[in-house]
Please model this.
Amino acid sequence: MVIERVLPEGVASADTFEEIEEALFDEELSSIEHAVERRVLEFTTVRGCARRALSDLGMARTPMPSKSGHGPQWPQGVVGSMTHCEGYRAAAAGYSSQWLSMGIDAEPDLPTPEGVLKEISLPRERRLLKALQAIDPSHAWDRLLFSAKESVYKAWWPVMRRWLGFEEVAVMVDRPTGAFTVHALSDNARTCPMLDGAHGRWLADQGHLVTALVLPSLDSGKRLSRDYLA
Ligand SMILES: CC(C)(COP(=O)(O)OP(=O)(O)OC[C@H]1O[C@@H](n2cnc3c(N)ncnc32)[C@H](O)[C@@H]1OP(=O)(O)O)[C@@H](O)C(=O)NCCC(=O)NCCS
Model:
C-alpha cells in the first residue's frame, strides 16, 4: 500500500490503482444521482477503500454520502479522509478518541497547469520549490505543494467548517525526510487546534504524489512519534 506509508501507526487505510466493485447505500447513490460515469467510479471505489479501512477498525458498513463542499460523512467515533485522482484512490480512518482530524490527497506527479502555482503559493514557498527543483528535477514539486495544501484543507474542514485560503498557511516541504511542516499565518488559520507547526508526510510513487496530514486529538496526549516524522 502507498497511502499507509504516509500515515502514522493507529490510522487504518486502504488504496487501489484499479476500480473496486462496491455496493452503495441509497444515501450514497443520492450523492451521485446526476454524476458522469467517471465520478460514479471514483466515488464507488473510494468508498470501497474507506469500508476496508473501517473494517480494520472493527466498524460495520455505514453510509458515507458526500455533500458537495462538506466532504464525506464518517461513522460516529471516526475521523477520516478520502482522495481520488486519475488511476489511484485511497481512504484513511482512525478513532476520534485518538485523532482530531486527518486529510489525505493524491495527485499525478506532473506540473500544475499554467497559472495555478501563483494562486496557491506564497513567495517563500515558491523559493523553496525552486531550490527543490534544482536539487531534484524528477518530481513536480509545485504539484506536491498543492497536494499538501489539499490535505491541510481536508483535515481543517471537519474541525472548523469554514473556508481556509491557500495564502493562510505556508507549507514547507522537506525532501530528505519526506515530511512537511504547516505554518498557520492568519488569525483564522491559527484558531484550528494542532494545526500550527503540524507535520505531515509525503511520498512519490508510481507516478503519483501522495500527502497526509493527521492531527492528534486534543485529549489523547498523543504526539506523533519520531519514527513517523523521520
Ligand atoms: C475540497 C478539496 C480540498 C478537495 O480536493 P480534490 O483535489 O478535489 O480532492 P480529491 O479528489 O483528492 O478528493 C475528493 C474527496 O475529498 C473529500 N472532500 C471533499 N470536500 C471536503 C471537505 N470540505 N473536507 C474534507 N474532505 C473533503 C471527499 O471525500 C471527496 O471525495 P468524495 O466526494 O468522493 O467523497 C478542494 O476541492 C477544495 O475545495 N480546495 C480549496 C480549498 C483549499 O484547498 N485551501 C487550501 C488551504 S491551505
